[in-house]
Write a structure and sequence with these properties.
CATH class: Alpha Beta
Number of strands: 5
Enzyme class: lyase
Largest sheet: 5 strands, parallel
Keywords: Lyase
CATH topology: Rossmann fold
Order of helices and strands: EHHEHEHEHEHH
Organism: Ferroacidibacillus organovorans
Shape: globular
Catalytic activity: dihydroxyacetone phosphate = methylglyoxal + phosphate
Number of domains: 1
Family: Belongs to the methylglyoxal synthase family.
Length: about 140
């Protein structure tokens, strides 16, 4: 599975701790992260992560492009709901893309825990069906 990890500044420590707790599970997946979040996870774990720009500098849109191209299966985006973000429109657009393309998204640790446990159990195999359908040649309905 292809998983993106994003966190607002006040939630970065939570996401780092989360990835430490589930490091063994994350090892078997393709990971992406926005700039500083990815750097902090890399420093705390042995995970391989493709890093993008920081969120306000375009990282949110880079992850959004993965979603639009069906190259992402799961988004964990720990948001701070009590702090206004200067790039809020980018955040809303990213979440909208998840809804449009049926990408499971967690915006808090409780939901991230549920999604990761589902990932561990193999509950996301339906994503492989979607990927396969989108890779079929035009007109091939199998």
């Amino acid at each position: 599975m292809r998983i993106a990890l994003v966190a607002h500044d006040s939630k970065k420590e939570d996401l780092v701790n989360f990835t430490i707790a589930y490091e063994r599970l994350f090892e078997g997946h393709e990971l992406y992260a926005t700039g500083t979040t990815g750097k902090r996870i890399l420093e705390a774990t042995n995970l391989h992560i493709q890093r993008f720009q920081s969120g306000p500098l375009g990282g949110d849109q880079q992850i959004g492009a993965l979603i639009a191209e069906n190259r992402l299966d799961l988004l964990i985006f720990l948001r701070d709901p009590l702090l206004a973000q200067p790039h809020e429109p980018d955040i809303i657009a990213l979440l909208r893309l998840c809804d449009v393309h049926a990408i499971p998204v967690a915006t808090n640790v409780a939901t991230a825990e549920i999604l990761v446990r589902g990932l561990w159990r193999g509950d996301f195999l339906w994503r492989d069906v979607i990927k396969e359908e989108q890779e079929l040649p035009e007109g091939d309905a199998r």
